[in-house]
Amino acid sequence: MKLISILAIAVFALPCCAQNKAEVFSNQNVSSQLATLTQTAKASGSGGATLGDYKSHSIRLSVRAKSGGAELHAHFDDIFVVTDGKATLITGGTLIDEKSNKDGESTGSSIQGGSTQTIAKGDVVHIPAGTPHQIMIEPGTVYSSIVVKVREP
After folding, report:
1. How far is 91 from 50, CA to CA, in rounded Å?
2. Between these two residues, 103 and 105, which has the higher pLDDT value?
3. What proportions of the chain, in percent to the nearest 5, are helix, strand and coil?
């Protein structure tokens, strides 16, 4: 009986311990991945990679050479740290030609009635869950960011 109790405690403690491990993504590694993604984006319009995916959030890299479609995430916030370039960010309003999936994610061709602002290297952006948003890129330019997707509890 003692052995079963000890095993049960160990099994339930493992996920707790795994969450306490720090992870560092070096500047050299991130820069290298962004450079590779930039080449991909120049050829196809966009590129992305996941640095880490955790229970409460994920950390991703995003590079765009073309404007993206509009989107809305029902279950997580987006935090962007712009690493290079600039873009026009449209937030709020209504998705046009909205298509939703079972995960609460919606996409659209554009946004009607949103607010626009320019974001550039060094800016940090927070987009709450449920907020329509779209990133517009000037032709011939490249925009990149680190994106943290924070899941609802």
Report:
1. 24
2. 105
3. 25, 45, 30
- Mean of all residue pLDDT scores within the chain: 89
Distance between CA atoms of residues 40 and 64, nearest Å: 9
Identify the pLDDT of residue 121.
98
Structure token digits, residue 109: 């061709």
Go through the chain and tell me how many residues it has: 153
CA distance 8 to 118: 53
Of 88, 84, 146, 148, the closest CA to residue 121 belongs to 84
Contact predicate 61/51, CB 8 Å: yes
CA separation for the pair 128, 111 (Å, rounded) = 16
Q: Are 85 and 143 in contact (CB under 8 A)?
A: yes
Residue 19 is predicted with a pLDDT of 58
What is the C-alpha to C-alpha distance for residues 98 and 108, in angstroms, rounded to an integer?
4
Q: What is the percent of the chain where pLDDT is above 90?
A: 82
- The pair of structure tokens assigned to 78 is 């987006």
